[in-house]
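In this section we walk through a basic example: taking a raw amino acid sequence and producing a predicted 3D structure, encoded as discrete structure tokens. The instruction is simple. Fold the sequence below.
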Amino acid sequence: MKAFFLLTGILLFFQVNSQNLLEETFKGCDTEKFVIESDSISIHPIEDFLDVFSENIDIEIIKEIQGVLFLQILVDKEGKSCLISVDNQTNVPTNQLYLKEMVDERLFWQRPKEKISVMFGLNFQDEFVNYVRVGLDANKGFHPIEE
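The resulting token sequence is shown next.
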């Protein structure tokens, strides 16, 4: 858990240079205009994010994965997800996690009033995972957010 918050702290010092807030980017999302969660959680997935994640990852990978993973997801006005970017600091390559397919095809949200970018941070340790929603604010930078 300490490593998770350390990484969150490091992210505070990164400057945002584009709409892709994290290191590894994906194509296929309409990024024309959207807002970013800032100080509090503004929308929720219809099904628990960890349930969707665990149902779509190979059991052997779940047993082996260690480290921290951040995801930036764009949610359109219909509640559909599109994975924009990730920062994968785990021992499993991103392509073996099938994150783009999982998020785009299986993660659905309450309908937001406007297109919004949400971020998750996941910390994998010994077959357990902790996660936190992350906001971005001009004054605070990247920081954990709650209701």
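Looking at the output, two observations stand out. The chain has five helices and seven strands. The longest strand covers residues 81-90. In the next section we compare this with other chains.
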